[in-house]
Amino acid sequence: MNTVPPAKMEHRPIMQEATKRSIVRWIHIVCSIPIIGYIYSPFEVLPDYAPATRLVFFPVMLLSGLWMWKGHVLRRLVSKGSARQVVQADT
């Protein structure tokens, strides 16, 4: 039986890049809605959903925004690091 080592297999993405961008964009939009409500809601109702807004929605919105803005840099750094590991493993 002829098997191909994992390092030699062709990498095929599961999703297209446009689909990934659309998903991250919608996550960013959906997480910004509670933040807008937090900003414009009456002061009396703020304690009801302040922890969820501060601990969940804001960090997710922040990270998704940073990913849309500078994700290409992070992907390039990760791909260079994995390429170095493959080269080191081959030697």
Tally of individual domains: 1
Count of distinct strands: 0
The total of helices stands at 2
Strand content: under 5%
Given the helix and strand composition, which structural class is it?
Answer: mainly alpha
Radius of gyration: 20 Å
Reported for the largest beta sheet, the result is: none
Shape annotation = elongated
Order of helices and strands: HH
| Termini Cα gap | 26 Å
Say what oligomer this is. single chain
Percent of residues in helical segments? over 70%
Mean pLDDT value:
84
- Uncertain runs are none
Characterize the structure shown:
This protein has one domain. It has two helices and no strands. It has helices spanning about 15-40, 45-90. The protein is elongated and about 65 Å long.
List the defining traits of the structure above:
0% strand, 91 residues, mainly alpha
Short account of what is shown:
With 91 residues, the chain is mainly alpha-helical. The protein contains 2 helices and no strands. The model has no long low-confidence stretch (mean pLDDT 84).
Please give the structural blueprint:
Layout: H1 17-40, H2 46-90
Helix pairs in contact: 1-2
